[in-house]
Amino acid sequence: MKEQGITDVIATPHFYAASDNLEEYTERVRHAFDSLSMAVRGRELPNIFMGCEVLYYYNIGASNSVYGFTLSNTPYLLLELTDGCINSDLFADITALRDKIGVTPIIAHIERYFRSPAYNKLLKYIKKEKILTQLNASSLFSETYRKTAEKLIKKDYVNFIATDAHSSAGRPPMMKQAFKIISEKFGSHYSSKFIRNSQILLEEINED
To answer: What confidence tens digit (pLDDT) does each residue in 67-87 have?
Structure first.
């Protein structure tokens, strides 16, 4: 990530409400985060902040536990969907998160749900309600997701570009390559917008 020019990283381990025990998850992730923070200390590597990627579960819009999953104690929540969960219940929950709970959802890797029969309904809802979304940098180089990713960027459905990196080999960070492609295909104002959005989020993190 340092070699890519990345200066700040939000770690987003997955949380699955159906299988993870909340207390055990919190303890495990906190221990891992503390260990990682200690390992990189003094090595001039990117700053690391605590976050989470929560898989959507029914009635999340009424769940007080979501406050513990936000990105480094900001109001932002990275929310992962499945193709099958895209329906009116999901839309109601996302709206409730924002309007009743006071949490701002960011839909994770929006390009990956294009096979869902309700994908167009999701995009319509996102546009109407101005819901924030994130797109994986690696998707711009994927035969499966590239066309969808480019279309979403061009039509202004994307607010954040992120690595979604799982390892340095299996799913490496590709931010530098992604921003080069975005600037070449769509113009530097697109890449500047994504950088600025990330800077705004980082400013809120640093305020805490």
So the answer is: 999 999 899 999 999 999 999
Q: CA–CA separation, 163 vs 176, rounded Å?
A: 10
**Arithmetic mean of pLDDT over the chain:** 95
- What count of residues does the chain have? 208
> Measured between alpha carbons, how far is 169 from 26 in angstroms, rounded to an integer?
27
29 Rama sector, left if φ>0, alpha if ψ -120 to 50, beta otherwise: alpha
Contact 139, 133 (CB under 8 A): no
Does position 208 have pLDDT exceeding 80, yes or no? no
Element (H, E) at 106: strand 104-107
Our separate counts of H helices and E strands in the chain read 6, 8
- Overall fold of domain 53-207: TIM Barrel (3.20.20)
Q: Which two tokens stand for residue 125?
A: 């809802």
What Cα–Cα distance (Å) separates residue 48 from each residue in 6, 16, 195?
11, 22, 17
